[in-house]
TrEMBL record:
Major site of localization recorded for this protein: cytoplasm
Family (UniProt): Belongs to the UPF0298 family.
Compartments, as annotated in UniProt: Cytoplasm
Species of the source: Gordoniibacillus kamchatkensis
Pfam families named among the record's database cross-references: DUF2129
Keywords: Cytoplasm
Identification of the protein by name: UPF0298 protein SD70_08945
Length: 87
């Protein structure tokens, strides 16, 4: 039902031109101050989209987000330290 998505950070020279990135995927955020855009694309088309984005004249660099590689399942096997702090 849900498709796998990957995040891309696109460093740009022109913020106004960065609005055109919407046709390559879901444009999530554009930073005017630091001049980058965050977008999400389908995982199966990442290589093709990175190549196409790199060819654009207003794109400096394209980086992949490592968010999907971060472990998000946590365990609570740590000892309870509240007894040390009671009076």
């Amino acid at each position: 039902m849900f498709t796998d998505r990957s995040g891309l950070i696109v460093w740009v020279n022109d913020v106004k031109a960065a609005r055109n990135l919407d046709k390559y995927g879901s444009l999530h955020y554009i930073s005017k101050k630091m001049q980058y855009a965050v977008m999400y694309v389908n995982t199966d088309r990442v290589e093709e989209i990175v190549r196409n984005l790199s060819r654009l004249p207003y794109v400096k660099k394209v980086e992949r987000s490592h968010r999907n590689e971060i472990k998000t399942e946590y365990n609570s096997n740590m000892p309870d330290k509240t007894r040390f702090y009671t009076l």
